[in-house]
């Protein structure tokens, strides 16, 4: 089905990566938001396949240490993640690996893994159990497969050189007609084990993959949407222990790490060695990813390690809301708003205007932190249709009663009927003769008017069809 280009919805290409259980739920909510949105449904209503689907230049990918549920409950058909959109980290020989960290095979793991905690690693097949090092360990062991999947998804989007005539939804293009650089979204929790343990690494792996594929041309926008400890207070209900202890500890550690790689001061140019030594440049992301390579290898990945982890990092969670599902919905709606509405473009323009202020040096820690993190503004409205209909029906009835009360001496029914009839272009003649003529025009003459069965009086079952009352009585007398 071919659609005029100017009538098609244009969205920015994007890869949305969900980490852990939180990321998976947000991805499903995003699918539901996308497929159930009135604009999207209207677009697909006129297609051969009326079921809305994501365009091929918006890709979803979930990385988790939990089992993939192919029968997960879905509110809207098609919102369940497909197998190609889900990667489960399944490490059955974790103890064997942690026992050989000093070997050349796993030397890249030995650079960071906390050896004292190796007995807590267990098998990684059903979640990370809120241990951040477990989530990161699983990522590093399964590094090559995850990195190659990310590269494949990015290359698929980059391979789209133009807009297809049959596209119902098209990718945004620049002035030269080239498809715009994809945006990267990372969604997860900073409080658990899987997502919190791998979110920084995934951010830089996406940057590294894009740099390799593009040859260093273009810079994708990296957006982080992270649930903080206050989003999970309702599920921490164990009365025997500190219910939010590990959640808060994970949240603090994750925020400290993100801030460390987010706040990179733009040092003024200097020529003296003394001034150079005073500048703290330790926040360069230098990680050995084993089979993939080192993030700070400038020959392979350019200056990726010197970039901030996220261009925009949003924290969601407040004590004013209690339902974790609400935050899944908020994150999904936010991504949809940025990708599929004009608000996203205006927000990016606003952030560009604020970049000069955000780039200035801050003397205090709080000032630095405020420049690294943002919150999501979100409003929802409940429209009680039934109540509103009842209210307006009551108001209309009161207004009508009041009008009738004031007009009781002024209303003439005959006049109103005459005015209605006269104003009708096909006005009716309500006289007896006029009604008879109108009835003859409506009722079939052959079937009714000329059929004596319908204009004779039959009072006896023995009366013959078409026989009127007088002939019938005369016949009965003769037969006696």
General description of the model:
With 480 residues, the protein is α/β, with parallel strands linked by helices. The chain is built from 18 helices and 9 strands. Helix 7 (194-214) links the parallel strand 6 (183-189) and strand 7 (222-227). Helix 1 packs across helix 11. The longest helix is centred in the C-terminal third of the chain and has 22 residues, at 385-406. The protein is elongated and about 135 Å long. The chain starts with 8 loop residues before the first strand and ends with a helix.
Please give a quick description of this structure.
The chain is an alpha/beta fold and 480 residues long.
Salient structural properties:
seven-stranded parallel β-sheet, 480 residues, alpha/beta, two-stranded parallel sheet, disordered N terminus
SSE ordering = EEHHEEHHHHEEHEHHHEHHHEHHHHH
User: How would you classify the quaternary structure?
Assistant: single chain
- Coarse structural class: alpha/beta
- Strand segment tally: 9
Mean pLDDT: 79
Q: Tally the helices: what do you get?
A: 18
Rounded to the nearest angstrom, the radius of gyration is 37 Å
Strand order of the largest sheet: 4-3-2-6-7-8-9
Largest sheet: 7 strands, parallel
Low-confidence stretches: 1-5
CA(first)-CA(last) distance: 84 Å
Molecular shape:
elongated
Instruction: Report the helical percentage.
Output: 40-55%
Binned strand content: 5-15%
């Amino acid at each position: 089905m071919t659609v005029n280009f100017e009538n098609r919805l244009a969205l920015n290409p994007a890869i949305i990566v969900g980490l852990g259980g939180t990321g998976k739920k947000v991805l499903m909510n995003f699918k539901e938001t996308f497929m159930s949105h009135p604009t999207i449904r209207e677009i697909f209503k006129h297609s051969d396949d009326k079921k809305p689907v994501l365009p091929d230049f918006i890709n979803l990918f979930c990385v988790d240490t939990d089992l993939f549920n192919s029968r997960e409950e879905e509110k809207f058909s098609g919102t369940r993640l497909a197998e190609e959109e889900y990667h489960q980290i399944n490490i059955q020989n974790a103890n064997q690996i942690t026992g050989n960290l000093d070997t050349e095979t796993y030397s890249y793991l030995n650079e960071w893994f906390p050896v004292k905690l190796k007995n807590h690693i267990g098998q990684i097949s059903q979640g990370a159990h809120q241990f951040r090092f477990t989530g990161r360990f699983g990522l590093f062991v399964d590094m090559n497969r995850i990195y190659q999947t990310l590269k494949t998804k990015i290359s698929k989007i980059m391979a789209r050189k133009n807009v297809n005539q049959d596209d119902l939804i098209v990718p945004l293009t620049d002035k030269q007609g080239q498809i715009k650089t994809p945006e990267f979204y990372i969604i997860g929790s900073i409080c658990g084990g899987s997502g919190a343990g791998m979110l920084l690494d995934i951010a830089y792996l996406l940057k590294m993959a894009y740099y390799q594929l593009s040859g260093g041309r273009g810079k994708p926008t990296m957006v982080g949407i992270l649930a903080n400890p206050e989003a999970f207070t309702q599920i921490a209900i164990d009365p025997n222990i500190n219910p939010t202890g590990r959640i808060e500890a994970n949240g603090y550690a994750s925020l400290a790490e993100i801030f460390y790689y987010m706040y990179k001061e733009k040092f003024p140019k200097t020529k003296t060695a003394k001034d150079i030594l005073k500048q703290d440049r330790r926040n360069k992301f230098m990680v050995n990813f084993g089979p993939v390579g080192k993030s700070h290898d400038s020959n392979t990945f350019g200056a990726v390690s010197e970039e901030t982890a996220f261009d925009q990092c949003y924290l969601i969670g407040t004590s004013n809301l209690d339902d974790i599902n609400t935050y899944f919905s908020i994150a999904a709606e936010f991504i949809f708003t940025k990708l599929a509405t004009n608000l996203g473009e205006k927000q990016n323009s606003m952030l560009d205007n604020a970049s000069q202020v955000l780039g200035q040096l801050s003397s205090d820690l709080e000032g630095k932190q405020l420049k690294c993190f943002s919150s999501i503004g979100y409003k929802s409205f409940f429209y009680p249709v039934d109540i509103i209909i009842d209210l307006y029906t009551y108001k209309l009835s009161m207004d009508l009663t009041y009008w009738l009360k004031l007009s009781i001496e002024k209303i003439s029914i005959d006049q109103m009927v005459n005015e209605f009839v006269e104003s009708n272009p096909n006005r009716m003649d309500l006289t007896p003769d006029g009604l008879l003529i109108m009835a003859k025009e409506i009722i079939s003459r052959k079937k009714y008017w000329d059929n004596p069965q319908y204009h004779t009086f039959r009072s006896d079952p023995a009366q013959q069809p078409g026989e009127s009352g007088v002939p019938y009585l005369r016949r009965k007398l003769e037969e006696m």
